[in-house]
Amino acid sequence: MLAGFDLRRSRPALVCVEVDKPGRERVFDHFRAAGYRELEAYRAVNEWNAWFAPAGDSRPGESPARAGTVGAGFN
Question: What is the pLDDT of residue 4?
């Protein structure tokens, strides 16, 4: 699925991807190769989603508790 998602062309500011253990490293490799970093603060929200932002962008990545909409509706 990610092979057709051209991060260099669309360059979204924030991406959430559902990851499973067998494919986890491939997902992370795909985002790292495109110049993205994982937003580790979002791991506290849940462990089955990974959140990424462009590595040089300092805007995204605020604390999920402060973001207000991350994880809304999920308890």
Answer: 79
